[in-house]
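Interim report to the steering committee. The following record documents the input for Riboflavin biosynthesis protein PYRR, chloroplastic (624 residues).
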Amino acid sequence: MPPPPPPLLVGVAPAPAATAPSFLHLPLHTRLRAAAPRAAATASVRASHSHEDDAFLLRRAADVADRSAGLTSPHPNFGCVIARPQRDADSPAEPLVVGEGFLYAEGTPCAELLAAREAGEHARGATAYLNLEPGDCYGDSTAVGSLVQAGITRVVVGLRHPLKHLRGKAIKALRSESIHVDVVGEDLQNKFFEEALMSCLTVNAPLLYRTAFHVPFSVLKYAMTADGKIAASSGHASWISGKASRGRVFELRGRSDAVIVGGNTVRFDDPRLTARHVKGHVPVRIVLSQSLNLPEEANLWNVNDAYTIVATQRGARRDFQKKLAMKGVEVVEFDMLNPRDVMSYCYDRGYLSVLWECGGTLAASAISASVIHKVCAFVAPKIIGGSDAPTPVGELGMSQMTQAINFIDVSYEQIDRDMLMSGFIQPIPDLSPVIPSMDEIPSVDPEVSPYETNIISFYKTWDTFGAFSNFSPYPIHMPDENGEYFTWPTVEHYYQAHKFVGVDNPQARTIVQDIKLAKSPEEAARIGRTRQKEFPELVRTDWEATKVDVMYRAIKCKFSTYPSLTNMLLSTAGSVLVESSPHDLFWGGGREGEGLNYLGRLLMQLRSEIRGTFPSNVEERDAA
């Protein structure tokens, strides 16, 4: 029998970004050593922090949460700061931060666990500050459990979770463990928390907008001259802004799931649209072109470094669509190509944040469709003139200045010689829960028909049944390429690595090691998929015949290791399970049910096997 897997999640969060030196930003051991003389002289310890301290530490939790942006695909950003109240003999002292952590990516250890690990014994009796209620869902109570086991006595929460199936669940669990929980806006209401609340809202703006409007959070970015031009009359646009501003654009791309341009941008600028300084996350590049009048050769057609999608009108240039497909570019047809439908499609793909780097005509269309939520305008100190020179936003149909769209929460930042002006054009949604009375809650859901087949969909790890995802943070203990048992961080790590396991080639073995060390399942998937495309000769020759069995062994180990997952799976008896990936037509169900849904089918097969109604050996299973 193989040795049992370790009880705690594995993985290491990346080093925090550099910050200004201060006592609160010193390493943990330095903070504790510096505080030791004060602690020894302490006459008494405050029972709770002041409201000013609470607000400061909550803002810090939001800042910590923001460290994950730019490292991997945007997800709910969680930050946790653990602090202890301090008091000198004669005067109050600033609170002592003893631990902090953030969720690096979906499928990696949660912020609360990392903060509790850093704090160690110093967490006992301390307060934990969370910018967002923990995302504990079915089968995973790591975040709450970490705070309970650490001995935390009080938790301050900036926002309740915006997803309905998670909202209030972790708060209730903490309170059931006799931990005092204060929620901003409910238990804490005064001027000190206004800025702290805005910090918590801003760091998770993508999730809030997506939840409220069912489209990804969209940012329109452009660079213009002081006289409002984004190019010369000839169309030449390189470069309006300076090098430092262009570096900031790379950061914006790294925080986004996708970058959108129009056909003119491809024809005139031939951009790459990569986040060249970002190592952990590469956004998808999306081109909107109604006629598909695009060049045969373009930087965006090289999909080795980044994936490209071309959205077009149904039936446009079928021959060119085939050429793009042969290059690895995905073509998606729409009955009517417009920003609203494209954003709905991006929502279905699970995107949270989209960056628009398009010209004025497409920008105006997106604003008119109400899918742009924020604007980032880089203004260069130069003028170019030209009555025909293009401007950032085309015709919006406004004839009076009173119709102008005003920015909300405007900020200004000097970037070398340029000025970055940014602001929201739609307010951040307020998703504070409204609790109905018992008379307002129907006993039967009128939208559910008792005659319809019950379908349970899962995709992202924060979905109701997100634990079924291969990206969910459940390590599995299974053999590696040498036959020795290894703790794989997720099922996705195991699956991607086994594309190259057993291949007698040093490069293949290096790829396996890179996947094993990937910090998140998304990174593991990206390594496995890109290397499979780049070096098909390194993929095991029997992969297509064995990949289903590889996956089945992995998910069977996952569910047998964690009883809570087994119970969750059994609770779905009688329902059809669908992995609702809109683009993976083998493992997922596709956008319109055209996919094979092999992952959902394997989970249903495992469910039947656990219930004792399905044969367990491979030959019988394949025959069935």
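The radius of gyration is 26 Å. The committee is asked to note this result when reviewing the revised timeline.
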